[in-house]
Amino acid sequence: MSPAQEVEIPPALAASYATGFGEAGRAWIAALPALVAEVLDRWELRRDDAPRSGAASLVVPVVGKDGARAVVRLQLPRAETAAALAGLQAWDGRGMVRLLDHDPGTGTMLLERLDGARTLASVEDDTVATQLLGELHARLLAVPAAPGLPHLGDVASTMLEQVPRAVAGLADPAERRVLRDWASVVAELVGEPGDRMLHWDLHHDNVLAAQREPWLAIDPEPLVGDPGFDLWPALDSRWGEVVAGGDPGRVVRRRFDQLTEVLELDRERATGWTLGRLLQNALWDLEDGASALAPAALVVAGALP
């Protein structure tokens, strides 16, 4: 590979993998430049912009032999990577970034190029942005779920098993009651977990401008379940701006009203599964050493009908 094709691994990505995966993560990062070189050669691609990364993946902008612009996305092969591939294949570009090719062995994906500099967060009017997100969300939910994806029923059952130990990690007795209340709601819903293919992380920054369509979703973490479990990322999106506006509860409630109307959801079930999502987030936080519920979670919960 020519020097122009060589990839320098962003330090933040290397640090994320070392923290999250230990020796396996460090080994994968060390092998990543060679993997990029092999993939670009095999698919006859050339780099045409600087790589970028998130906490879990490296994204390399490329151009094919035919001049088509795309990106190569690389991340450690895991169950989540396989689920994302299955979801992308099922959505097949319907409201979602299109999967052009993939390598099942390494989890590497070749995806259509979107405008990474313009997300839905660039739409200043939050009501308009929420409407656009809701309409896109409805299209994603209309696609039948791919086989083999994880199911919300299993996720929720595991959450309920973790609650007693998690409650003990909260310092405030009032917050312990809140966590138990959220768990009680999930316990009532767990027997009817739903059967739609959820994105699981659909918020303003995971919707990018595109040429094929005005807006397309990216970075799905597919899960089969009730669409109400999919609302929280949009309710919490652009949180700094929401808080700066002075009445975050009002914004959350308006977003919830918009999304449940566009998606034609039963509001009571949507409220319950949104509390389930808050429960999941709290369990993750407590596992990571937190001793209090996130203030934003309490605002969201208080704004739900």
Describe this structure in words.
This protein is α+β, with helices and mostly antiparallel strands and 305 residues long. Helices cover 50% and strands 14% of the residues. Strands 1, 2, 3, 4, 5 and 6 form a six-stranded antiparallel β-sheet that branches. It has a three-stranded antiparallel β-sheet with strand order 7-9-10, with helices on one face. The chain has a two-stranded antiparallel sheet with strand order 8-11. The chain is globular and about 60 Å long. The model has no long low-confidence stretch (mean pLDDT 95).
Task: Summarize the entry for a quick read.
By secondary structure, this protein is α+β, with helices and mostly antiparallel strands.
